[in-house]
Amino acid sequence: KLTHLGPVLSASLPAIINNAAAPIAAALQLGLLGHSTNAANRVAAWSAVGAVTTFVTNVANFVIVVTMARVGHALGSKQWSLLGSTVRAVLTVAVLVGGVCALALWLGRAPLFSLLSLTSAPLDSIASGYLPLALARLPPLLVLKAASSVLVGYQRVRAASMLNLALAVADTIAFYVVLHALSGGLVALGATLAS
């Protein structure tokens, strides 16, 4: 019935925000990038590198699934001592998995760029400038996803949604500042991060 639609939408809103925040931020960043100098090449490099890091993040999703299951189990069985050590272990594993993934992608950047057709100028220099930033984001991104899953495991879906929304807003603002306000561009940003 329509009378029950309101409570369903109200209960679903945190999950909708949780799932929509990152794609909306990516779309806004893409729009900002599309209005920059040399937009077509920047969009191509940003999209290719972003697709790889998103793929790696999604493959590493096992950290998130295990987190929610373990936290939910410890919470449900009221094993309070296990709960704290589980959260610490999950956050540590998220940092390690993010670091290993970033290192593997950095070491394999030449074949990766070849596979993504980023070997010709100016795409190679643009992608080379963006890659360090994208890889530096992997460990914190996985920690955020793990922390969000911990909150969901604690049945704090609204808090997890607000955390993800805040990250998406901060990420988009930082992207704008680096690209437009500082006029740094992807290459300058990557060079700054690499030094």
TrEMBL record:
One of its GO terms (cellular component) is membrane. Belongs to the multi antimicrobial extrusion (MATE) (TC 2.A.66.1) family. It comes from the Eukaryota. The chain crosses the membrane at residues 43-66, 87-107, 127-152, 173-194. Keywords: Membrane, Transmembrane, Transmembrane helix. The keyword Transferase does not apply. It comes from Haptolina brevifila. This is Polysaccharide biosynthesis protein C-terminal domain-containing protein. GO terms for molecular function: antiporter activity; xenobiotic transmembrane transporter activity. InterPro entries: MATE_fam.
